[in-house]
Amino acid sequence: MRWKMGHRITVDQNKCIGCGACAAPCSDSFEMKDGKAHAVKSEVEELSCEKAAEAGCPVEAINVK
């Protein structure tokens, strides 16, 4: 049996400026709470919009590995 590895999603709260550039196009994985972005899911099996959200973050607060 093969073990499936997921992609880990994190948001650095110290860097996040709360612009919503991640949550707008990728609301399944990110939400705005208390003026900051938060990952709704800490891990996903397949990437859809998460890498675009990571690339679109103006302060590089999002990390998808």
Task: Tell me about this structure.
- With 65 residues, the protein is mostly beta strands.
- The chain is built from one helix and five strands; from the N terminus they run E-E-E-E-H-E.
- A hairpin with a 2-residue loop joins strand 2 and strand 3.
- The protein starts with 6 loop residues before the first strand and ends with a strand.
- The model has no long low-confidence stretch (mean pLDDT 90).
In short:
With 65 residues, the chain is mainly beta.
Q: Which key features would you list for this structure?
A:
mainly beta, 65 residues, 3-stranded antiparallel beta sheet, globular, two-stranded antiparallel ribbon
Walk me through the topology.
Layout: E1 7-11, E2 30-33, E3 36-39, E4 43-44, H1 50-56, E5 62-64
Antiparallel strand pairs: 1-4, 1-5, 2-3
Element-by-element helix/strand order: EEEEHE
Task: Calculate Rg over CA atoms.
Answer: 12 Å
Cα distance spanning the termini:
23 Å
Count the DSSP helices.
1
Structural class per helix/strand content?
mainly beta
**Which word captures the global form?**
globular
Summarize the biggest pleated sheet. 3 strands, antiparallel
Percent of residues in β-strands: 25-35%
Average pLDDT across residues?
Answer: 90
Provide the low-confidence segments as ranges.
Answer: none
Spatial ordering of strands, largest sheet: 4-1-5
Total beta-strand segments: 5
Helix share, percent: 10-25%
